[in-house]
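so im writing up the methods section and need the tRNA-uridine aminocarboxypropyltransferase record in one place, dumping it here so i stop losing it
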Amino acid sequence: MSRAQCPRCSRPSERCLCALIPNLPSRTRVLILQHPSEVKHALNTARLAALGLSNAELLIGEVFESLAALLQQPSHHACLLFPGEQAQPLVQFAEQRNELPLLLVVPDGTWRKARKLLYLNPLLAALPRVALPEGLQSRYRLRKAPVPGAISTIEAIVAALNTVEAPACFDELLKPFEVLIDGQIEAMGEHTYQRNHGKQDASS
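--- predicted struct ---
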């Protein structure tokens, strides 16, 4: 028999995170495009980010039919948060277009799945790409980073908003994320956690 789940945060009812999820306004519009494989992941940080931001939207799928209408809003400058040689620093992109707020498009999935989203949605691949500052450290203690500097979706969104909307701070968005991580560590047991992840923590 499956455990009852909170319909809002999708966590088991006894571990509901809703009381910790803020409702933060932002000038930047955040559009999260989540690959379906991430929906039932225990650490679904994209959902937490969408719930905690009043100016955010979460879409789930591989092909997004509504993308053209969402991207062609004259009130925003759209950009894709995706690292690589073609990406320019986010702060530089924002400073050049400070007369209008940004529409920050954030793919959510493994690197392979995120690239697939770009391949299946040419409008995404055509967007100007932006990247976060180097050297960011993830608090995601349960998953090894695939590349140096890799962070979770919610951490990337917080870092992006802190960058372009300073002095406003969006760190409050990370509170339910940190409790979620602590709960997962507690559930697996300290011994198992240290065996699988302790060395990673010591080296970070």
